[in-house]
What we know:
Elements: E1 7-10, H1 18-29, H2 38-47, E2 56-61, E3 67-74, E4 87-93, H3 102-116, E5 121-126, H4 130-136, E6 140-145, E7 153-159
Antiparallel strand pairs: 1-2, 2-3, 3-4, 5-7, 6-7
Amino acid sequence: MLRSSLTIESLADRPDLVDPLARLRWQEWADHSGRESLLWWIRTTQGEAGADGVPVTLVAVDAAGDVLGGMGLITVEHDELADRGPWVVGVIVRSDQRGRGIGGALMTSLTTWAADAGYARLWVNAGGRAVDFYRRCGFTITEVLRPPGRDPMTILSRAVPHGREARGR
């Protein structure tokens, strides 16, 4: 169940949240080659904290100021997919908070942001259980790529609703 005290903040407006969000990402994905260092995650998270467009990162924070999760939007995730974008990236919800609607709240806020910015479509590269999350958020699978020497990439996209529809009214 989603807490009423949850707020969604722009990382650009809350640079104090870079380190806690980077630490969440690092704890989840430090086993990825080339991304083992917490410093790599801090620098990447800082780089995704744009204030004037993409990249942008939103952060879910509780009443105590603790980071519960985050989600970003970048122009290009993989060079071979540069003909599409923007891309949803860095989606994380603290493990003890999963299943409470935080990811959905972040996606709603990010979709509203994208609508306000004039984007017509969002893209994401996902695998495993994450595919089901994105499908619940309105994404559909567009293709599955099997790049040589890499894990398969399930590519999903969704139209960005505009105006009142984007805000859930």
